């Protein structure tokens, strides 16, 4: 009798254990499913390994990005925007953690394997952009302000930029896409083009999305003054980093497709010393 009771008691314990395991399994599964849904449609995270947005964002930082706002309105001048790189950034991929690589599986098919950038929006479709010397410009501090359609947007009045990339050489995008083309051999950026050959896969983006626009219509240079004006095409936006001297942004890689925009960073979650709402 005692043996039978012992066996029944053991069976009950085993049954209770299996029940608990199943319940925990369901809870974990639900958490993963709902977490993934929230991640896909509401929130996103990103790692910022570089200093392109110093002092606004100090690396290495992990940001919490909300994806709702720009579903209902387009970002405005001066807004900080997170977007998919329109090309594959091989160098930045090295900084991704295991979590980032796993969540990449749920990225839009077009941008799977791409990384996220965070910059400030400075130009919308149809805008004409021009860099002019800032009042505090000196030989030791050659900084510029960005004029949009002949005026400085209030949100950008305090921003200073370096006149590089396409604002210095209207054919910069061509050189970055075809660094071995004989026409760019004597460009002041020739060495930079060569350096970026193994860092980004840019040619496909240039040939499929930028070149067909007819860039000569959108990037012009005044032959008498050398001033370059950039018009933002429909369906694109122009992004620049706050740390202009050390920011790889639209001056270098071109216009950002509107469909590549992810959302707005709202919170720094790492390092803990910087934890809190992002100061914009």
TrEMBL record:
EC number: 3.4.21.89
GO molecular function: serine-type endopeptidase activity; signal peptidase activity
Location, primary (coarse class): membrane
Annotated keywords: Hydrolase, Membrane, Protease, Transmembrane, Transmembrane helix
GO BP term, example: signal peptide processing
Membrane spanning residue stretches: 27-48
Main EC class the enzyme belongs to: hydrolase
UniProt topology in membrane: Single-pass type II membrane protein
A single GO cellular-component term on record: membrane
Subcellular location: Membrane
Record-linked InterPro entries: LexA/Signal_pep-like_sf, Pept_S26A_signal_pept_1, Peptidase_S26
Catalysed transformations (reactions): Cleavage of hydrophobic, N-terminal signal or leader sequences from secreted and periplasmic proteins
Domain Peptidase S26: 22-270
Highest rank taxon of the organism: Bacteria
Pfam families given in the database record: Peptidase_S26
Active site feature: 52, 119
Keyword Transport (UniProt): no
UniProt family annotation: Belongs to the peptidase S26 family.
Protein known as: Signal peptidase I
